[in-house]
Amino acid sequence: MKIMKFGGTSVGKPERMHQVKDLITRDNQKKIVVLSALSGTTNALVGIGEALAEAKKDLAKERIDSLHKHYQSFYKELLKTDAARTKAEKIIKEHFEFLNIILKISFNEAINRDILAQGELLSTKLFYTLLQELDVPAVFLPALDFMSIDENHEPELPKITEKLKSILVNFPQDRIFVTQGYICKNHRNEVDNLKRGGSDYSASLMGAAINAEVVEIWTDIDGMHNNDPRIVDKTKPIAQLSFDEAAELAYFGAKILHPASIWPAQKYNIAVKLLNTMEPDAVGTTITAKEQGSGVKAIAAKDGITAIKIKSSRMLLAYGFLRKVFEIFERYKTSIDMITTSEVAVSVTIDDLSHLKEITKELEKLGTVEVDKNQAIISIVGNMIAESKGTVANVMNCLTDYPIRMVSYGGSRHNISLLLDAKLKNEALKSLNEGLFQWN
Ligand code: ADP
Ligand code: ASP
Ligand code: MG
How is the chain split among helix, strand and coil, in percent rounded to 5? Predict the structure, then answer.
């Protein structure tokens, strides 16, 4: 069995949904088809939630109506028969009635998560209606029946596995199962989600649950590129990556993959393929356990980073100092991305600022604290680059014009990370692109 996940742009237009139908019926293999919301829908739902959180009901209503209009024209282009169109009208009516009812009740975070779930519910139901219209046999699999997260927001893989398997045994003859990415239930049995871009994570969790042969992530680009194509003009796809390399790139900003989506596949050794819905025969990127190739393979960048430096003469020759620092971050459930130390100071970076005030206050008990916001991490990734001669020199040669705030080297054999002012990120990425790759 395999997983085929299609992102927002892959289902965002009626003709693309038809293409998805062609792709899932190309072979006769059993598959779970995981869909995102139509492109733009989750952003629109976030906007509705924000308007409601600020008690701007008119604005929320305007946003609901505009999204509603989009779906009303979408389904007419998607479906041809009266029977299918009647079904689609009913689906759209049900979900927009729900959004309109929310306007009348008092808003809270649980309701917000319900709002965010509407996108994937709509896309999968409309797609399933298309399959019915075209007589493609398929089973509709509600993700809320089996996808769950615990109180720490971590997916409950053993539970997911048990539930999903117990559902699938009821359909021994069926070949196509359609389900939602992104959405799940939380420990309070409320509707929740796996954070923005989370459909990739859903796909790899489902892949791990059913021990899939492969998890295919179908998107709008022909695989993982060697640099951020939104920023750098000249980029190229990478045919092969190891799990570690892909995880580093995803974690450090390559938007094509949700940062957590590699670990479930890695744990069960399931290949992940990144493929282009618009160019289905392009090679794409295959991610497996195999470590191969040499030199720098790709660069990724993540902004919205804050650097915190704790300086203390007490650190000098003292043991236990770092533990005290890390305990503070642990208490506030704030994860650290990069660390550098000297004898009298330690610098760390974080991207979640929800508890910055409390963390700073506690750190001040240990020493002098400096906080620098608006930083960016640039990660240079490749097989064993931390052990290959000259790589660091080449990287630094590309960046002679840019002040580097932190360098992390040797933590992983596959990664060199640098921290600099976010304003310099784009130029630094371009300069590294010219200096580190062969362009003929
Ligand atoms: P989907 O909606 O299919 O999940 P996303 O927008 O989440 O698609 O991810 C695909 C996008 O990721 C691409 O269109 C591209 O702009 C962006 N991207 C950022 N970094 C990279 C990279 N290194 N390689 C490929 N795509 C990247
Ligand atoms: N629809 C969700 C988002 O836009 C999840 C996803 O597309 O992966 O973030
Ligand atoms: Mg995505």
Answer: 40, 25, 35
Pocket of ligand 2 contains residue 391 by CB under 6 Å: no
**Closest ligand 1 atom to 39 CA:** 2
Task: Give the separation between CA 27 and CA 21, rounded to whole angstroms.
Answer: 11
Q: Is the pTM of this model over 0.90?
A: yes
| Cα–Cα–Cα angle for 54, 58, 61, rounded to 5 degrees | 100
Token representation of residue 96:
């927009």
d(CA 160, CA 76): 36
How far is ligand 2, taken at its centre, from the CA of residue 256, in Å? Answer: 11
Q: H or E stretch including 288?
A: strand 285-288
Give the dihedral sign, CA 20/21/25/29.
positive
At residue 70, what is the residue type?
H
Residues 6 or more apart whose CB falls under 8 angstroms from that of 242 comprise 287, 288, 289, 290, 291, 292, 383, 414
The enclosing H or E element of 374 equals: strand 368-381
Specify the pLDDT at position 231.
97
- The percentage of residues in the chain with a pLDDT greater than 90, rounded to a whole number, is 91
- Which of 34, 42, 221 is the best mutation target for the ligand 1 pocket, counting ligand atoms within 8 Å of the beta carbon and taking the most? 221
Crossing angle for the helix pair 82-102 and 109-133, to the nearest 10 degrees: 180
**Which ligand is the nearest neighbour of the Cα of 35?**
2
Closest-CA residue, ligand 2 atom 8, reads 197
Which amino acid is present at 190? E
Neighbours of ion ligand 3 (CB under 5 A): 7, 197
Residue 352 to residue 50: CA distance in whole angstroms: 19
Strand, coil or helix: 338:
strand
pLDDT digits (tens, 9 = 90+) for 7-34: 999 999 999 999 999 999 999 999 999 9
Look up residue 185 and give its two tokens: 């239930």
User: Residue 317 has what pLDDT?
Assistant: 63
119 Cα: distance to centroid of ligand 1 (angstroms): 19
Mutate to test the pocket of ligand 1, among 219, 222, 302, 436 (most ligand atoms within 8 A of CB): 219
Q: Which of 138, 185, 155 is nearest to 25 (CA)?
A: 138
Q: Is the CB of 382 under 6 A from ligand 2?
A: no
197 lines ligand 2 (CB under 6 A): yes
> What is the percentage of the chain residues whose pLDDT exceeds 70?
99
Phi, psi at 176, each rounded to 5°: -120, 125
Flag whether pLDDT at 267 surpasses 90: yes
